[in-house]
Specification:
Elements: H1 10-15, H2 19-26, H3 29-42, H4 44-66, H5 69-101, H6 105-118, H7 120-124, H8 127-133, H9 139-162, H10 167-190
Transmembrane segments: 9-27, 33-54, 75-98, 110-130, 142-161, 167-189
Keywords: Membrane, Transmembrane, Transmembrane helix
């Protein structure tokens, strides 16, 4: 299963964007165009967070090897809080850009749902980075592939039963998958004493200085 492993993330990476080919093939012209524009705008969030994760990974890996467990938990909490703030700022930027490019109530609703999914770090923190740091990241590719399958079955079934696919339904299903994956990772991290998002402030060991 090397082709779906955390070290070879090609298939899981593609699975995270399964909604794009679905939109191209199942949505009607104007709906597909609006969906793809909204999807491109909301991708600003993960694109901006990716290099931050790359920069932080050596710090987290070194801490995991050399520091006490409680110290690593404190670093994880600070990273989570940083992701919350950065994701919130990116979300505001996306909303401003959307006001320049998108028109129509349904197009805006599609963007809001897609942005909700992409802003999962605002609720749950740096789940991908921390799952890797705590050696729990092997499950992430399986979650992504399973989520892509569930999303595909849901949208194709709705298309067959109700006629032309709905961009809003696709956006809602995409957001649901993204939030479910992030919530699952956050739940697994709580077993290692890492609290998600802003709840890290309530962790007794954390001292923000």
């Amino acid at each position: 299963m090397r082709w779906i492993s955390a070290d070879r993330p090609l298939l899981p990476g593609l699975a995270a964007y399964i909604d794009v080919p679905i939109a191209v093939y199942l949505l009607e012209g104007s709906s597909a165009q609006a969906y793809l524009i909204a999807r491109a705008l909301t991708c600003i969030v993960p694109v901006a967070l990716t290099p931050i994760g790359w920069r932080l990974w050596p710090v987290v890996a070194r801490a995991a090897d050399t520091l006490s467990f409680s110290a690593v938990q404190a670093i994880a909490a600070r990273i989570n809080l940083g992701y919350v703030l950065i994701t919130g700022a990116l979300g505001v930027l996306v909303l401003w850009l959307a006001s320049q490019f998108l028109r129509g109530d349904q197009s805006v609703q599609v963007l809001h749902w897609l942005l909700l999914g992409q802003c999962a770090p605002l609720l749950f923190g740096a789940t991908g980075l921390l799952m890797r740091a705590f050696g729990r990241d092997a499950i992430i590719p399986l979650l992504r592939i399973g989520g892509a399958l569930c999303l595909s079955v849901t949208i194709v079934s709705a298309h067959l039963l109700k006629g032309p696919a709905d961009g809003l339904l696709l956006a809602q299903a995409t957001a649901a998958v993204q939030l479910t994956i992030a919530a699952t990772c956050a739940l697994l991290l709580t077993q290692r004493g890492v609290w998600p998002g802003l709840t890290a402030l309530a962790q007794p060991r954390i001292r923000l200085r």
